[in-house]
Amino acid sequence: MDLISIIEVIKLNHDTNVLNKVLKGENMAAEIIQIYVENLQDDAITETLSTWIKDHKQNANKIGAYLLLNGESPRDGLGVIGMLSKVKAKMNTNRKAEPLDILREIYDGEDKGLARATQLAENNVTQDARDLLEDIFRNDHDHLQEMKSMISQYEKENNQQVH
Fold it and tell me: Superfamily assignment of 3-158 in CATH?
């Protein structure tokens, strides 16, 4: 194996590691939002969040397909952080949280997850992987903007301030 081939293998292995971490985040987002959706009484919010669940699942499928096409295996599961986040979401819904509290909680999770994923991928993946991730990150960023608007609208309707 020549030096260039070795470098390519190292890059692919690093892409695989980064993409599997982003994959885990997309799966975690879909599962956690689903927990909140199951406990919301607001049809408009539920409809929007259901669309986001589909988006996160599509993002996960894109990453999985990319990995498979490159001879790599997508990793299943949410990991410890994902499992703890699911427990937290279930606890939040058990305390009869208001829709605005749920929106803020989801926003916070999406924002932190996107920031982590962006930082992880920044300058650390090949151009092909970067192209894939930029599309996914753009989609997640759109969720954040929509969520910010929903929170603002909900606050105006209920005369509440952002925490």
Answer: Ferritin, core subunit, four-helix bundle (1.20.1260.10)
